[in-house]
Amino acid sequence: MKNKLLKFALFTTVLAGLAGCGTTPTDSTPTSEEPVSVSELTKEEKIAVMQEVAEFVPIVTEDGTGTVIYSDQVTDLKDGRDLTVRTKVNRFGNLIDISWTYREGLDGAGNPLATYEVKPIDEETASVRPAYPVYDLVINSSGQDVSVVPPVAIGRLYANLAFGGETLRVSFDMYLTPQIRIDWKKLDVIRDTEINAVVGARGYITSIYPDYDAITIQDGAFALTLYKTQAYSGRGLKIGDFIEAAGSWRPYNGLAEIGWIVRLNLADPVEHGAALPITHEFSPADFKEWYDAETPTEQFLTALYDYDSALISIDEPMTILRAENREAVEIALADLPTTNVHANIILGATVGEGTVEIKLSISYHVGPAVQQALKDKLIAAGLGAHVTYEGILNWFNEPVLGIMSADDITVVA
Questions:
Q1: Do 287 and 332 fall within a single domain?
Q2: Mapping DSSP to helix (H, G, I), strand (E, B) and coil, where does residue 31 land?
Q3: How many other CB atoms are found less than 10 A from the CB of residue 33?
Q4: Residue 117 shares a structural domain with residue 250
Q5: pLDDT tens-digit series, residues 268-322
Q6: pLDDT value at position 24?
Q7: 329-377 tens-digit pLDDT
Q8: pLDDT of residue 34
């Protein structure tokens, strides 16, 4: 930002004099107890107030990252995100109104300038969706990306400020990087997608591996897993956030999964009619039904099949039978790994006249702290202890309990 500090000092001096105090104004609080009457300000002073707002108040931010976009630089938008803009700003007890338009016409190369869609969010903010160029992802038989990618689009967004009868127009110039065309689908139908097709899904985050190897999302009853999301680990995502993500649909050993993520943003659950995640109540009998099914077709009809990656609870106590490594070799509880090694706890339950064994899958992606906490809890309980479960239903060629925290299991008498 060119000479921001100098400009800020000059405008602060002007505004402090207008407000009758020496403090710097903040974004939403008047600079004095008594609002400055707009009628007391000259045209030049009103324009100076609007210029200060345009330059120093974050009136344009990028969704998902919170990056502030300034008017005195060209912003390169690469990830297809929307923008959040301010439509009202409080200054000196008076509101500055801001409306948003865009420049139409052609760029220097004769290409149409990008357009923008503006939708109100509330009384003070709006969502702006830039018209990114889009294209279809094409992979040849050798696995090479041979997509025909359109050129980067250029767009100019205008902030039209109005204050005390005066107006000021400020421009925000942007490069819009082409985005892969995304087929957004509901989580209950996404399993019908062609393997390796680019697909988009939206849901509330229900779990995040500490190393961001995977994130699970859920919308109402249905869920799926986002695989290899390390590129988005710095965005402050947390359980309960509603996000939209797009990537290659590629189920893994029965787990509904999107990998090769090309977009991951915060989204508005109200706009998409999202339902809060529900916790499905299952019992060991549901697992036995799946294991007893003689064909894949019969397994598809069991209660568990459609709910991998979803939140579940098993309130019927299960017995800790043994610990196993990933090769199904029995190990002592004291030998459960706390490093980059997977392990399983085998839980058992009696169902009618039969029994069922259920795997509690301990992925090393939960991190050594969780591995150690779970190990301590299991050793303290001991073989033969009874536990209940509330957490994620995972899948690895069979339904497994995808534990994320030692708190997901409860030791019962």
A1: yes
A2: coil
A3: 8
A4: no
A5: 899 899 999 999 999 999 999 999 998 888 988 888 989 999 999 999 999 999 9
A6: 33
A7: 999 999 999 999 999 999 999 999 999 999 999 999 999 999 999 999 9
A8: 54
233 contact partners, CB below 8 Å, separation of at least 6: 212
Predicted TM-score (pTM) of the model is 0.70
Q: Are residues 95 and 239 in the same domain?
A: no
Last residue of a domain, one of 216, 237, 266: 266
Query: DSSP label at 72?
Result: T
Same domain, 188 and 171: no
Helical (H) or strand (E) element with 98: strand 94-102
pLDDT at 2: 34
Residue 93: burial class (beta carbons within 10 Å; 0-12, 13-18, 19+): middle
**Residue 2 has what DSSP assignment?**
T
Residue 306 lies in a domain: yes
Residues 6 or more apart whose Cβ sits within 8 Å of residue 225: 214, 215, 216, 255, 256, 257, 258, 308, 309
- What's the confidence (pLDDT) of residue 360? 97
57 lies in some domain? yes
- Residue 119, strand partner residues: 127
Which spans in 348-406 are helix H?
368-381
Q: Which helix (H) or strand (E) holds 354?
A: strand 354-362
Backbone angles phi, psi at 71, to 5 degrees: -85, -15
- Domain count along the chain: 3
Average of pLDDT values for 100-123? Answer: 92
Domain contains 131: yes
- What pLDDT does residue 36 have? 63
Please, where are the H alpha helices in 243-316? 284-292, 296-300
- Whether residue 288 contacts residue 348, with contact meaning beta carbons closer than 8 Å, is answered with no
Summarize the confidence of residues 35-39 as an average pLDDT. 69
Domain boundary among 179, 199, 231: 179
CATH number at residue 234: 2.40.50.200
In a domain, 286, yes or no: yes
- Considering the domain architecture, whether residues 54 and 134 belong to the same structural domain is answered as yes
Using one digit for the tens of pLDDT, what is the confidence trace for 134-177? 998 776 777 677 889 999 999 999 999 999 899 999 999 999 99
CA angle 6, 14, 125 (to 5 degrees): 85
Q: Measure the CA–CA gap between 322 and 255, rounded to whole angstroms.
A: 25
170 and 193 belong to one structural domain:
no
Q: Give the pair of three-digit tokens for residue 222.
A: 């249905």
| Residue 333 in tokens | 């509880």
Helix (H) or strand (E) holding 56: helix 43-56
Domain that holds residue 247: 183-266
Looking at the structure, tell me whether residues 78 and 163 fall in a common domain: yes
Q: How confident is the model at residue 87 (pLDDT cuts 50, 70, 90)?
A: very high
